[in-house]
Write a structure and sequence with these properties.
By secondary structure, the protein is of the alpha+beta class. The chain has helices at 3-20, 76-85, 115-124, 139-145; strands spanning 41-45, 51-55, 66-69, 72-75, 94-97, 110-113. It has 4 helices and 6 strands, in the order αββββαββαα.
Length: 150
């Protein structure tokens, strides 16, 4: 054993014995990080002038804000809506956004609805893939504009 390792082991044993004799306070874990989801949101102004609270932490591959909540990884907008309603969402219900901003977790922009409600909201705003303006150019002209890197 090297002299450095021997010294580190001796220091650890001195702390252990002092703690057993009551000379040192028991080990105290570090303070937990904020558990309130609102602590990790930043206000952002949209093009229409409304304000979203965007999540600044992790997102899933679809762009929705996610966090660990009560032992599970959950979508933050769903957690915020459940906390605001004071109950869990019913089976088959979703936390739908009126602002269509996936990282937004502002309670005023969330409502409880079914998948059909969400699709009707999307269609009423003209956000469906079938509602986008078609490109009047031919597919060959469109392909010519694309740049491919190899």
């Amino acid at each position: 054993m090297s002299p450095e390792a021997r010294a580190a082991k001796a220091a650890t044993m001195r702390r252990y014995r002092a703690r057993r004799r009551g000379e040192l306070p028991p080990w105290v874990p570090p303070a937990p990080i904020a558990r309130d989801p609102v602590a990790w949101m930043v206000p952002v102004t949209n093009e229409d002038g409304s304000i979203c609270l965007e999540w600044t932490r992790a997102t899933n591959r679809d762009g929705y804000a996610v966090m660990r909540w009560r032992g599970r990884v959950r979508i933050v907008s769903r957690v915020v809506l459940e906390l605001a309603l004071g109950r869990s969402l019913a089976p088959g219900m979703k936390a739908c956004h009126t602002c269509d901003n996936r990282p937004c977790c502002y309670r005023g922009h969330l409502f409880e609805g079914t998948h059909e409600d969400n699709m009707a909201d999307m269609a009423s705003k003209g956000r469906g893939h079938w509602q986008r303006a078609a490109d009047p150019r031919s597919p060959t002209e469109q392909a010519a504009d694309r740049s491919y890197r190899r």
